[in-house]
Amino acid sequence: MQSANQQTAAFDVVVVGAGMVGTSLSALLGNAGMRVGLIETRPAPLMPSERGADTPPTPRVSALTPVSQRLLTHLQAWPGMQADRVTPYSFMHVWDGEGSGDIHFSADEAGVAVLGHIVENDVTLAALNQQLVNHPKVTRFNGVTVEALQTGARQRYLALNDGRQLQAPLVVAADGARSLLREMAEIEVREEDMGHTSVVTTVRCEKPHGNTARQVFVDGQPLAFLPLTVKGDDHYCSIVWSVEPSRAEQLCGLSRDALGKALAAALEHRLGQVEVCDQAHGFPLIQRHARHYVLANFALVGDAAHSIHPLAGQGVNLGLMDAAVLAEEVINAWQRGAAWGDERILSRYERRRRADNTAMLALMKGFKTLFGSRHPALMLARNMGMSGVNRLAPLKRAVMHQATGERGRLPASCR
Ligand SMILES: Cc1cc2nc3c(=O)[nH]c(=O)nc-3n(C[C@H](O)[C@H](O)[C@H](O)COP(=O)(O)OP(=O)(O)OC[C@H]3O[C@@H](n4cnc5c(N)ncnc54)[C@H](O)[C@@H]3O)c2cc1C
User: Coiled-coil segments, which residues (predicted)?
Assistant: First the structure.
């Protein structure tokens, strides 16, 4: 990365937020030859191997689809992630703790090598950042934030809190669900409190995880045990338990011993006893969807555009597709000498991404309603639905195809 100590700087694109989505977008644009400024408040994370030999897993993980894996491979981040710590899962088991509904998925049935990988967010971020070190086209501005966003003729201007000014024909907000840039651009957002807080921590179970991602609905509330293999030890799992906020507060306040017992009981002891290895953290869940993804010389990607219930583990996968599609449209325009910040060019990105994101947000809301309901007809429907899908091979294959990210026209970087 170049050092960025000049007072004002002009770029082709400025990306605000170096999360997984903003960093991927910056790498795609920079690798094509565009000059990118990347602004981030936090320091870049280190790989587990750089943090020390026996570093425990960090609590925030994501289930990455094979399509996201292809994008990360295209960006040359995947080999470093794989060498450090990723856990493939070849099986998924979802069941209803209150009924007989039960569904099993396997990579074999889907005709794919794996259904996905569970990866600590910091591992993905660290590997992406390694690709940007000494990158001739990407300049990272660390430890700063944006104080003002202004509009000029075919340009956006950003004032940073350390006094520096940046300008570019395109500014992209990749600054997460509570995006400051989205607010500065006055883009409205539809918000829906999901009435859930996700309790997240790392556990070690008595039995090995068997490369299976498990999710049980306990009183209609999803509890996921996501497999993690740490230095060959396949007894670790990352847990995400999405419950009512008062219950989440109670769970986070339990001793590790008591939380382990509660988790083991909720999982019906299928992995034996559960030892909690880390503090439990709570993340309130609010689904958000921006009314527009683009304005002239401005675009939203990832959680800044949409944030979604984690029950099907799709959030960052959707965001990575946003980054890949936006990069494809912008690079195409730049290569043919068109104005890449033009709203008509940017609208192509919105058209290609909005339907997929909207469908996934609606599906998560539907799942939450279906599984959260105590209505006998809905309880019967979900049990029959799950068992029915489990018996119908073509329908099951279609569900798996969707879940692995193979939806619609994929950008070239993900094929
Ligand atoms: C409990 C939980 C479990 C989840 N599990 C999964 C899963 O299994 N699979 C999946 O696909 N998704 C999952 N998600 C969703 C996933 O974590 C998000 O979709 C993803 O992190 C969004 O990435 P992003 O880069 O868009 O935003 P973020 O990860 O929020 O990154 C935004 C970045 O912008 C920076 N920033 C913010 N404001 C500013 C500013 N003003 N100036 C400069 N920088 C700024 C932040 O420091 C941060 O680095 C889960 C979410 C939760 C809460």
Answer: none
